[in-house]
Design brief:
single chain, 6 helices, elongated
Length: 294
Amino acid sequence: MSTLRELKTRIGSVASTQKTTSAMKMISSSKMRKATGQLQRLSPYRQMVQHVISHLLVTDQQFDSPLIVDRDVQRVALVVFGSDDGLCGGFNVNIFKQLLVSIQQVRKEYGQQVGITVIPVGKKMTKAVQKIVGKDIQMEKVALNTRSGSEELYAFTDLMKTRFLEHTFDRVEMLYMHFISTGKQVFAREQLLPVSYQGLADNVDPRAANSPCLFEPDANTIFNTVLPLHIKSMLQDVFIQSAASEQSARVMAMQAASDNAKELLDELQLEYNKLRQQGITTELLDILGGQVER
């Protein structure tokens, strides 16, 4: 049976844990709001790039760019976004499970002999991916993590473009958690390279046809200038989506931990009060027994 001193120590420890998890929840909430704010600020830029592409695609001209060329797929790069830190519930576990599913899908689409290179972003994901590295699955480490800034992100984008143009990779895909709300994030698999020409056409603003433009020097040159900007904005959007999802998962995990600590604290406090009342009752009975003996 626990003594009052032991219960008091446990109550203090649980209370400290609850305060810590509550503080971590507040910090993660602040980081999540910062990430969602970045998404909102990025949206006008992406819309402007898409606006320019829409005006280009509504013309009758043919566009030529090595970044939109589909070729026989011999090696696929899967860029999987995880976290550098823990305490975010099943965030990394769920992404890793979907990575395994995606690998099977890639083999089904392009054949069992297709080469697969996994490029993890985040220490936790890197550690998980190391477990599946083998003869037909390679891992490549890059200088990009969840705390990287725009310069590192753009350098990584240029690296992926170079690897694609050099035929090191025939296809580059991104695996990440898409942020919807604090309580909901969904896994997404998105093609980065080659850029889907059909995907660009599907997103054309129909109003662009009603506002014809003059292109200088020519439409194809502008297309090849805007396309890399489109790729950068795609990767930046995915990077921020993953960051927002990570912090959202951490908010939910810390909320659950705080609720569990509060429930345990209430149980310990009740047990402490019962034990303390029992001690008082015993002392009163001893006092009354002594008076009777007199």
